[in-house]
Specification:
two-stranded antiparallel ribbon; 6 helices; alpha+beta; four-stranded antiparallel β-sheet; 236 residues; 2 domains; Alpha-Beta Plaits; 6 strands
């Protein structure tokens, strides 16, 4: 007996093993990319998310012969509630990954990665292997190729800049024309003095490629009185 998609509703252990293996492979490939980039939701997280989604769909398939309302009862087994519950739960986890820092929001890509990994797991667990493979390939293209494109876009970027200067020296003006950035907006967050040095922390928003910030940091590092500079770009 087969459903409309041509898939047998009677699973064998070989079917279950293939679905779990592909789900783990997809989750591992996506997680490996996140791990190498130093982002949250790394290898173990995406593996567990994809595996959990696949197991949920396999469980739904195994219970399929019991679906519906029995002739001697009133309760109805709705198997679609199981994958829908998985997606709802991932919505809460994804929301927890999004962090707001003042007017900056980070973690959105992490939440989206968890979401697509869950859906891929549901595809493999439900037996839609081709759809799962294609979705995994597209997700990796987005995470790899599109990220490389995004790095070179001339767009607004945000982050924090730490500047250590000798106490008594003039504070560097980050919004002057000598900086090799376009449309710089720098706001001093705080500063502290210890052991004859002053440490200043700025919130910076600028427009341009990352290479522009690298040139700016090099220029600041060679400014008289500046001991060290450190840039922390906000990543998703």
């Amino acid at each position: 007996m087969a459903d409309l998609a041509g898939l047998s509703i009677h699973l064998t252990w070989a079917d279950v093993a293939a679905r779990l293996a592909l789900a783990c492979l997809a989750g591992g490939l996506i997680g490996l990319n996140r791990e190498q980039q130093g982002h949250s939701a790394g290898l173990r997280t995406t593996l567990l998310v994809c595996l959990a989604a696949a197991v949920a769909m396999i469980q739904a398939d195994l219970l399929l012969p019991l679906a519906g309302k029995p002739s001697d009862g009133f309760s109805v087994m709705d198997l679609m509630r199981l994958p829908l519950g998985i997606l709802t739960g991932m919505g809460f986890i994804g929301a927890g990954a999004v962090v707001r820092r003042g007017d900056l929001v980070v973690g959105v890509t992490t939440a989206a990665t968890l979401w697509i990994t869950t859906v891929i797991g549901l595809c493999f667990g439900g037996g839609q292997l081709v759809l799962g493979v294609v979705s995994t390939a597209l997700a990796l293209v987005i995470l790899l190729a599109v990220k490389a494109l995004d790095r070179n876009l001339h767009r607004v970027r945000r982050g924090e800049l730490l500047v250590v200067v000798v106490d008594g020296q003039p504070v560097p003006h980050l919004d002057t024309a000598r900086l090799k950035l376009d449309k710089v907006e720098a706001v001093g967050l705080d500063w502290r003095i210890a052991d004859g040095v002053r440490t200043l922390r700025y919130k910076v928003q600028y427009q341009g490629p990352p290479s522009a910030m690298a040139e700016t940091l090099d220029g600041l590092a060679h400014t008289p009185g500046v001991l060290a500079v450190r840039w922390s770009g906000l990543q998703t």
